[in-house]
């Protein structure tokens, strides 16, 4: 049975900025979806959803049909409805996998799940990013070159206001000297969360075959082995033994 | 310079329930404060605050005078004002230490900082709790007997809906067979958070000298070595090198 | 392509003790291998090896044909040749998965990979073990009952002299009151290591369908996504950028 | 009572290489010891020991008088007697703090405690190292500038063949683009271990006041709160409850 993936994006830049549209004619979500389909074939069933869709394309029904959700947002974080965020969070804590991408670090859903500021330092100077693997046995790093080279990128720098990852897979450096924990794994409730920083509207990062490999590996890692159910809850328990 | 500790409690049970008042004539907060003073002497300056105080005793000014805050709540979680929770969270992310105690697992502040349900299984059957040290080199475990025996206690059981601790110090068992991660360390932003589960209004746990030792150790561990400042925030950074 | 599993056991008790032989007529290794085959079918190709085999059944050629190795030992830890241990360690650091079972906690290979004493407290009193899941989203816990009940077992107790696991999946309690970190995940070099404590020659634990489920899940988790190669090594690196 | 610190160094380069002697007229150990005394004053009692001393200056008696040991080695790793390594390891597992510095990554003692290759990539090209804090609430980072700038340094690069640290405090970048986990905390047995990579015989790193601050912070962090005793060991335990 294929893993059901929903690729979500705010789709803010694409209709407004011609150069972004040229770079991502099917949207950032389209490029991400194409990369997953290309890498994973019949192992996944991919659909896309955007902010403008009814309920942002994340209705109860649509989430119930999703095993792994990928999240890209930048300008519209505050436009995401709180009730949709609560619904997504509930689904993650119930077992759904979540991939948070690039500027999604500051999305409501990531901040709600992490509990910290999720803030970072940044500049947009077309610097070269090198993504180094620090967990060579982790499945998300399988087959990924060391370093993965991204010619031009927005720069993200520490301190990154996140909890220490349960497993840290990648650390990036930028030509300006910054470092960034660019690949971070978390278990939260019954769900698995992976944050991956490379990717921006101003650079063709989601066409990079090695970035696509990372995302594909991450979908496999985050897919719920035990299915998705209800989040944990308080329960009064009798003495049983 | 002494560590400035604020011991906070909702103080719900004490005025309403004679047996709790008999057990904790100075309130649960009073017993915790006395234990810290007893163990740490001039290394700390302890004050107490309760829900009924103006701004719950956690005004900007009072928080600015606090290095480590301990939190006990049970019936009144929802009565804690959201703006006070936001203020405390901000102070923790800026460096203040936070000790969350027992039923404080379900407080707004703990849930906001953890991002998960923080739920658990429970029953109140006067069972014996054994607190086992699993990190014998951790400073919070210094001098603590293995196991620390609590004759009668409310039972807490897994699954405990928390992120995996950065360092797990204690695991408890109960006579009914349950286990519980009873001593959990987290770094969040610039602050350090310790959750410790033993302690209940119906049992004299905060008079136990070994429980007091754990709390004293935890205050020393959570005290901000680098002082308390602003939480991390996004920042645009120039190229400097 | 199936995961190639080698199930290793010292096979000390079986030929010497009739009741162990009755319990495990095909050896402890036989029962473990049967459980994996039963649960995983064509996803694995399982073979067994024992101490008495030439090179303990772990020659270079045999290891080169192994993706995941499971290790059971008790009386004969010191009889395992150091060069075989070095070879297995090299293969793990190069990417092979390793499952260390029960009294294997004190094997040369586990101690070499952990760097600590790997010691524990124990008694053999036929106590009931309850295996509680503390990482409900971890793939090794998929489908495992909470708690997993083992009617009679050797008791293992903390402190367990291991490094804090990268991910802690299970904690056990015993009727005598002890707790034990019974399911522990580690990444070491390019390889993944899982320690699982239930299982003993004196109890039919490896016939338990839920224990078999855990071992099957663990084989899938530990299988090297990126294949097995050489361990990491020091390297002089030119400036490349 | 002051923390008793032993600063150990192989002292290989200093007597052989005039420029190293000029840089470190009292030896690398002398510079490290001076830095600790300067930063910590009466909180520590510092002595030094070198490879050429009887029993390398690490006799049973000398170790019994040591709360925290710092280790610097490079050319002479293999000349350190195995029995001294075993003795130091035993003392660490019993509670002594250990700071492993720079090329000490490949010392027998660090490799024995980590269980992995502890290998890395390197070159000596006088590159600029930036040490970024990723755990701003950790006591070892207290007061350390972000980034800490070291004008010229040997370059160390990932993959660093270590277990994932219990707490990762610093990540460095180098002008050549490499990244390195340069500040890593581990609990091992009852002892605390900190690895810190900046520091080399060819650069005056141990005269840098901010590097000295890190080392001083690390001594405070690693000092055994509960004293030093015997390592954990297997023990047969009766039923007590």
TrEMBL record, chains A, B, C, D:
Domain ThuA-like positions: 4-222
Domain of life where this protein originates: Bacteria
Pfam families on file: ThuA
Identification of the protein by name: Trehalose utilization protein ThuA
Species assigned in the record: Nonomuraea glycinis
Lineage, top ranks: Bacteria, Bacillati, Actinomycetota, Actinomycetes, Streptosporangiales
């Amino acid at each position: 049975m294929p893993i059901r993936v929903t690729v979500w994006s705010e789709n803010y830049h694409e209709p407004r900025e011609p150069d972004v549209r040229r770079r991502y004619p099917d949207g950032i979500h389209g490029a991400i979806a194409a990369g997953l389909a290309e890498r994973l074939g019949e192992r996944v069933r991919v659909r896309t959803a955007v902010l403008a869709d009814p309920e942002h394309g994340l209705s109860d029904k649509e989430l119930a049909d999703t095993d792994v959700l990928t999240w890209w947002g930048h300008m519209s974080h505050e436009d995401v409805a709180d009730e949709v965020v609560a619904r997504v969070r509930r689904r993650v804590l119930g077992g759904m996998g979540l991939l948070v991408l690039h500027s999604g670090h500051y999305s409501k859903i990531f901040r709600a799940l992490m509990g910290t500021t999720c803030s970072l330092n940044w500049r947009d100077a077309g610097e070269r990013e090198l993504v180094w693997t620090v967990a060579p046995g982790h499945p998300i790093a399988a087959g990924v070159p060391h370093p993965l080279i991204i010619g031009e990128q927005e720069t993200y720098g520490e301190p990154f206001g996140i909890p220490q990852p349960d497993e840290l897979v990648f650390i990036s450096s930028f030509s300006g000297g910054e470092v960034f924990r660019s690949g971070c794994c978390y278990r939260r409730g019954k769900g698995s969360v992976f944050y991956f920083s490379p990717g921006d509207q101003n650079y063709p990062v989601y066409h990079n075959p090695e970035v696509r490999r990372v995302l594909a590996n991450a979908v496999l890692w985050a897919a719920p082995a035990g299915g998705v159910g209800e989040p944990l809850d308080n329960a009064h328990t009798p003495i049983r033994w």
